[in-house]
Amino acid sequence: xxxxxxxxxxxxxxACYNICPKGAIEMVEDEKGFKYPKVDNxxxxxxxxxxxxxxxxxxxxxxxxxxxxACMNKDEEIRKQSTSGGIFTLLATxxxxxxxxxxxxxxxxxxxxxxxxxxxxxxxxQYRSSKYLQSDIGLSYKNAKxxxxxxxxxxxxxxxxHIEALKSFLGKxxxxxxxxxxxxxxxxSPLVWDKYRxxxxxxxxxxxxxxxxxxxxxxxxxSYNVDFEFKDGSEYKKYHKYDAYMRAFLxxxxxxxxxxxxxxxxxxxxxxxxxxxxxxxxxxxxxMDDGKGTSLVIVNSKKGxxxxxxxxxxxxxxxxxxxxxxxxxxxxxxxxxxxxxxDKFFSELKNGGDFExxxxxxxxxxxxxxxxxxxxxxxxxKVLKK
Length: 386
Ligand SMILES: Cc1cc2nc3c(=O)[nH]c(=O)nc-3n(C[C@H](O)[C@H](O)[C@H](O)COP(=O)(O)OP(=O)(O)OC[C@H]3O[C@@H](n4cnc5c(N)ncnc54)[C@H](O)[C@@H]3O)c2cc1C
Ligand code: SF4
Ligand code: SF4
Ligand code: SF4
What we know:
With 386 residues, this protein is α+β, with helices and mostly antiparallel strands. It has helices spanning 15-19, 49-53, 76-81, 87-97, 140-149, 160-170, 190-204, 244-250, 281-284, 302-310, 322-326, 342-350, 355-362, 366-385, and strands at 25-29, 35-39, 67-73, 101-107, 113-118, 154-157, 177-182, 208-215, 225-230, 235-239, 273-277, 295-299, 315-320. The chain is 32% helix and 19% strand. It has 14 helices and 13 strands. The site of one iron/sulfur cluster has 15 residues, from helix 2.
């Protein structure tokens, strides 16, 4: 049976929870707010299925010949609502038009993040835009298998570990399954997100009515804002580099431990298509950068190419040399290094520390860092003169 001795060895994908035939596995939150499996020994029959399904325990290999593209959805409104170039919606629409089902991450009514599925184009909006915390998979792999066994097309979207978890949960290939992952920086803790949202709501004296981690409303794609709208009509809008939650995320303070030694970031992926922001597009193909969002689309398989060809007329798209395409996006195949202050951040936050002060302490704004660097340079110069 599955036994998580060391937290770094569990990415929280929930494949074990989905596969257990006896319902002996429960996903339990730790003190940082990340879920880990807990086995009920009374119910467990030692069948070993959970270990077989765990993507962290089983080394899976694939040889791809990936192609990279810079893409923009021609529908300007959808692109505005999306993180990058709005390509997820095009892929999902193609699947639904074929009678298929789409799985993705959405907010629930309390702004927690869960995986669910939908079968209607008008319901795709809930999955648009990145939610920067770990999505709770629930029983989505089991649900996806039911649709696949009925012969329905399924597009399953998520992080690279979700995709490998679904593959090992299924244990065989399905012609009707399409897999789309993302370039993944890592996932912050749902508890940190809850604390941050509570902090914002306390300052606003009002509950959240809508939220975007990647708002392009009043700015460009690369200078995106974190944007909260509250029930009393007030708003919090902040350039992401000045927002406390985003700084904690981007400086790896709030990440799951397994994300700091991620084995799923690699050229040869199990997904059919990988989506990302095309960071660096202005250097590679400036004509594809209009400030409204450009997607990097990596096509990993023949099936991915067939799906991609179906949406060709609905986007502006140019192929880019693979190495140039990933050059601006280190998270494609480089893991996010552990922040040595992460444990202190979590424990001080848990003990009631003020979110903004903790982010200022452990993930200072770049302007503060620049000032500090200048100070250090000044001191070094003085020392060298003596
Ligand atoms: C946690 C996280 C880290 C990321 N890190 C990077 C990075 O380092 N570099 C980079 O270029 N891109 C990163 N991305 C991907 C990027 O932000 C966009 O999701 C991607 O470019 C797709 O954009 P789009 O405009 O085509 O579609 P959108 O409509 O914005 O795409 C939404 C898609 O993202 C999925 N999604 C949203 N939130 C989650 C979540 N919490 N977990 C799993 N899936 C989710 C939805 O299911 C849907 O498939 C990250 C995304 C997430 C969620
Ligand atoms: S060994 Fe079998 S019964 Fe026991 S927890 Fe794992 S999957 Fe469930
Ligand atoms: S299957 Fe996923 S959740 Fe279960 S132990 Fe392995 S990595 Fe953790
Ligand atoms: S960084 Fe790796 S382990 Fe963490 S969520 Fe992304 S794919 Fe999964």
